[in-house]
Design goal:
The structure is a homotrimer. Chain A is of the alpha/beta class. Helices cover about 45% and strands about 25% of the residues of chain A. In chain A, a hairpin with a 2-residue loop joins strand 6 and strand 7. Chain A is globular and about 45 Å long. Chains in contact: A-B, A-C, B-C.
Chain lengths: ~170, ~170, ~170
């Protein structure tokens, strides 16, 4: 298994950079969208992302069972782009799942994937602003920070994108 | 045209670093302040910045028409410090201007500047905290992220300043 | 005096990285906790940190008088981990102290420490999100940014930790 983690702030260009990394593998491009469409604003964001990345992607939509999708679709011919982990964490919290358990599951399932698998995770850096006033936001950024740490530890490469410019952290 | 983009968080030292970059050109130093003074707190911040950078700067105050100022004042003898883009975006939003159009205008006008021009843009990184609850703040950080990406693509150098320490991103 | 500053967002792994830096000195490990326990959430965080770092640390709890503790406990045999500066700033603000004065005091007392002293400061990056709506949060991030800048200027090393991965800024 080869895994890459691409972090960045809002509108940092992290998705486009990840799409480029996946395209450069020369494999079948699989886009795993974790977004659930709650409102018009979200629908608009999703539509814009779709136009931006082009038509030559296979689309899988899965808001919760990331482990299941990875185990089913990872193979030597595909590269899977998981976009994005922070939305997935939001979905887990909204569905009142055990987020720590689900996060640990993803990390351990990653290590069980076939050697030829290729996965690229996109996620938002959300922990570099002021401490949020509400408990749910604080929990959310704790979950995100913990997941980023444990994923980064097992990923082959970790990138941080700012203003469209990638920095290699690992 | 030589253009530099200096990004950083609040009180990161990005303005001081930009002032140093402009001073090092040995050119006439022009300070383009985009701030509009809404209240005492803002007046206080502006006054402190003024004292910090010293008296040997020509000052231009322009909250909206960035393109016009750049076209009028850029020449082979001056270096213009635009401080800062995030305030300029705020001004555009308050004045209900088309922010995407204005951002695209700045980028394209930059490419039309004379070869000898030297411009340094300062801007706040605002997209690495929790997703803001209100739509206007989300729009704002989307505008900032998009502008940073498109400017970074045409700038010769991009820096990120943390705790007064510059990192070169490009 | 050897001083190190370790910055990072929430749950970035900055504390663990700092603990490693202190352990690598081979000196007596002193943990200076600045946290005041306001509620159960804070108590929980503190307890988790304690378990994580293990039992072989001497613990000093001091919410306000950082300068006093550094002057008293720094010696050639110890390495002191100050965790963390952002909580210390919060305590100063809650106690209505002069934060600028206290910050300047810490920096200047650091320069007066014996040559053999070893100190590692941990602090949160809080200035890379949207501008906070409330004045107290804006003041807080201004204080944090200013303190980080002035400390970074006198520290021997400055690190920024993201997803558990340290980047050397200085």
């Amino acid at each position: 298994m080869t895994a890459v983690l691409v972090l960045g702030g809002a509108r940092s260009g992290k998705s486009q950079y990840s799409e480029r990394l996946v395209a450069e593998t020369g494999r079948r491009k699989v886009y795993l969208a974790t977004s659930e469409i709650w409102d018009d604003e979200m629908a608009d964001r999703v539509a814009k992302h779709r136009i931006q990345r082009g038509d030559d992607w296979d689309l899988i939509e899965e808001p919760l069972d990331l482990t299941g999708v990875l185990e089913k679709h990872c193979d030597a011919k595909s590269s899977i782009l998981v976009d994005c982990l922070t939305l997935w964490l939001t979905n887990l919290m909204m569905a009142e799942k055990d987020v720590n358990e689900a996060s640990a599951d993803v990390v351990s399932s990653l290590l069980r994937l076939p050697k030829e698998a290729h996965v690229c995770f996109v996620s938002n850096e959300v922990g570099q602003g002021i401490v949020p006033a509400d408990k749910m936001s604080r929990d959310f950024r704790d979950h995100a920070g913990r997941l980023h740490q444990s994923l980064a530890a097992v990923c082959d490469e970790v990138w941080f994108v700012t203003a469209g410019l990638p920095q290699k952290l690992k």
